[in-house]
Amino acid sequence: MTVESSAFDELFERVSTWGYWGPDDQRGTLHHISRATVVAAASLVRTGRAVSLGHDLDLDPGPDNARPVEHRMTGFASAADTEPSVNTDYVGTDFHGKSVTHVDALCHCVFRGRLYNGYAADEHVGERGADVCAVSQLAQGVVTRGVLIDVPRVRRVPWLEPGTAIGASDLELALSAQGLALRPGDAVLVRTGARARKDSLGAWDPSDFSAGLSPDSMLVLSRGATALLGSDGDSDTRPSPVAGISSPIHALALNAMGMPLIDNMLLEDLAVACADLDRWEFLFTMAPLRIPGGTGSPVNPLAVF
């Protein structure tokens, strides 16, 4: 399905929250998470089963890992040292990409010169990062109800082929099949089965071909007052269905809606846990590193049942 530029512009305006929380707002859809939301989410913990939603940091280059994580030892424990002696190491990552599980702050994506809420990118982003909409807005973490929308399971396939677009009707069908209804403040996680495909067929470059959401699917999340969107890809379908816009979901989520994105999540273990328990909702937690001016951060989100 292709989307005309004029239709995309109309959709951008429909889901935009610019000014809704005031002209100086930098938190966007995180406002949907109230203290009552957190308390209600905590009540979903019944078994104590916790599931990591983050990938191991990948040190090896590959089609889906053009910028591998750097890890080296900076010191080794020695018996000659004062007891106790220690081992130390360095970890470096250019985490925006197709490998590292990370959260995108609202300053990550610039669309037509603007960040979320109309901030001019050239006035607020420089060599030391961003002075608005940075990842520091998430410094207290995200604790809320999480829901997994497992599209391949609903379709009875192991994964979606790269290039498959998940539309609004697909999301609504999957939610209905799983007995779910979105609630304000949800963290919505969409499984495409990308990791299952990689494990079975090998790696490919998701920059060229990837399953993801179609632009109209954001209407479902907007109506549901969703706080955060995550996926086992980067939520965008590639090739892009919108001419001239390489990452329309990033533009709609980060720029128009003010909704943080979590890219490259590990959702296979979560899908197994949900199927085992016949539950598609859980306590979701995620905390970024406190990086002043940061455009995002590596994360290891957790689902707790």
TrEMBL record:
SUPFAM superfamilies reported in the protein's UniProt record: Putative cyclase (SSF102198)
Entries under InterPro entries matching the protein: KFase/CYL, KFase_sf
GO biological process, one term: L-tryptophan catabolic process to kynurenine
Molecular function as annotated in GO: arylformamidase activity
Any Pfam family: Cyclase
Listed PANTHER family: PTHR34861
Protein name as annotated: Unannotated protein
Classification of source organism: unclassified sequences, metagenomes, ecological metagenomes
